[in-house]
Amino acid sequence: MTIAASMLFTVSCGQLLKTSRRTQATEAATITETIEPADESNAVVYAVGDERLSPRQWFATLWIDGKPMRLTSGKTNSDAHSVVVAEDNTIYVAGANDNVATLWTIKNDKITALPLEKPNRYYSELKDESFTTASAAYSVFVTPNGEVYVAGVNNNSGDKNLQRGMGGLNATVWKVKGTEITRQILQGMEERESSYAYSLYITPNGDVYAAGYQNDYNRRDFASLWKNGTLQVISKEDQNASASGVHVNKNGDVYVVGSATLTDKSAAVIWKNQTVQALAKNNDAVDYSKAEAVFVTDRGDVYAAGYENYSQSNTLVATVWKNGTKQSLTNDIDKTFANSIFVTPGGNVYVGGRVGEKATIWKNGIPQTLADGAASTEVRSVFVKVNPRTERSRADENKPDDDNKAHDGENIHPIDIQMKKDMEANDTNAGLYDAYSTANDAWELEMSKNLQKLTDLLDSDERRKKLNAAQKAWLAFRDDEMAFNEHFWGLFSGSMYGPYPMYYRLYTVRKRAFELGNYFDKTPYSSHTYFDENTDIKTEEEWDKVLNEKYKLLMSKLGKENQDRLRTAQRKWIAYRDAESDCYDSCNLIGWNPDNRLLIVRERALRLGKYVDDYNESH
């Protein structure tokens, strides 16, 4: 819901309205500049939003020049609302993860998530989209001296430290310094029920502006602007208004955009120093409209982005207003939204939103789709950094030094290199556990990226369906295998075995990441696990025999409860083996590893054998 000004901050988005299918819009135009936009070939375009695979599963996603990077592994639902890139190229993303306001930091492809609030047990357990999240971050701003501010909403019910009447949903600003978080609950009206902060702007002299809205117990909405935490209600009682974006120009003029009922319909509006002006002129053709974001250039041009709803076709049309003049981005596409806008120093206009179910960025009116429709995706914030410092390509960043070679001469993956460094830096049991855990998180993300890329490359629903079935089967196996794994290592005495469950989990996920990646691109890195060994066994039938022998031997050493856990895990493994084999012919795009099923059976036989060897060594 926010929009940015200098090259050091960004914007967020607004809540979207559900509409019927659209057939046709009545107007269309192309964004034009009074001057020709400059050639900014060194510009890097950052966008954030979410990918929704189902009503119950969605991922916060970052796109860099159109390439997606999921910020979570998928264990929890997450979404991203705002992105900004600092001078040192650190990427900051604000959003929510598992119903908790979260700030993600991305530096050199390493993703760090910082929860801004503690989880709310009620909302975490409820898992019901019809209820408001416990907390969420909608806008992030980085000042020239590197201070990081985040705006959003926080459910403070039950917080005894808050003043009377400030419980419930509250507009909130967080100031983040490293892992230190300072929270400020923004001032509310005396009879307000809840309040939200959707956009943030910090002036050069340090004034903190936040824009959003409040509602009272009569369900009336009031557009609100906060300056340094002090409330300024900028709409009238009968206007039912909300604010979505704020920007302060170099002269100190404060621009706020949103919607308000100035006549009989809700219309996109802009407030300049609290004086309201309609952007959209609602009539028989336009039923309602809203502005989601605002950007003011150094030349003084005022841009706003949002949408209009056309009455006859009940269609939403992504729209940009420049100095009050409307420019529609589409004319015949259903459900199009403009959530964010960014104008570069060279005059190039970038707008982020969606067309139908596809995340889209418009550059000077020309759309670029960021997704192929495999999932419902949407851009909620866009940020453009021009002339970034020259950096090594990702391939060069990941290229190991000569001494980073596997025993067979293959390159070691950067995640494995970092894990080795972490292990050497702290070789205590706690240090090893942390090293394994960090590497496991990295491999979870690598697996998710490979899964998404493979899904995008498959050219039919049937092939994608087989991949989805195989992944679901693997996840079911992983979960039951790890349940057994945890209890198996509980049979061992001594703190030295503490890191072992995480170690086994790490390599389970690592193997799957390589497995998916090798379907479309033979990895240059060593995919060996510590379960590999040289052997004269060549066929699947021989490995299957070894597997059954090791399974029976391991079962003979376990108590009944662990036998049940192992039996359940083994059945899930069989289901995964079969689903993966069924998927292989459809999903394999480069013809690598024709003996894929053999390798799956071989790895399982070696894994069970390792369990047996570890047990024998300690009992």
Spell out the blueprint of helices and strands.
Elements: E1 44-54, E2 57-64, E3 67-70, E4 78-85, E5 91-97, E6 100-107, E7 110-115, H1 121-126, E8 135-142, E9 148-155, E10 169-177, E11 180-185, E12 192-202, E13 208-216, E14 221-227, E15 230-233, E16 242-248, E17 254-261, E18 266-272, E19 275-278, E20 286-296, E21 302-310, E22 315-322, E23 325-328, E24 336-343, E25 349-355, E26 358-363, E27 366-369, E28 376-385, H2 394-398, H3 414-425, H4 429-457, H5 461-489, H6 500-517, H7 540-556, H8 560-587, H9 596-618
Structure description:
The strands form seven sheets. Strands 3-2-1-28 form a four-stranded antiparallel β-sheet. The protein has helices spanning about 120-125, 395-400, 415-425, 430-455, 460-490, 500-515, 540-555, 560-585, 595-619; strands spanning about 45-55, 55-65, 65-70, 80-85, 90-95, 100-105, 110-115, 135-140, 150-155, 170-175, 180-185, 190-200, 210-215, 220-225, 230-235, 240-250, 255-260, 265-270, 275-280, 285-295, 300-310, 315-320, 325-330, 335-345, 350-355, 360-365, 365-370, 375-385. Helix content is about 25%, strand content about 35%. A hairpin with a 5-residue loop joins strand 12 (about 190-200) and strand 13 (about 210-215).
Short description:
27% of the residues lie in helices and 33% in strands.
Notable characteristics:
single chain; disordered N terminus; alpha+beta; 27% helix; 28 strands; four-stranded antiparallel β-sheet; 33% strand; 619 residues; elongated; Neuraminidase
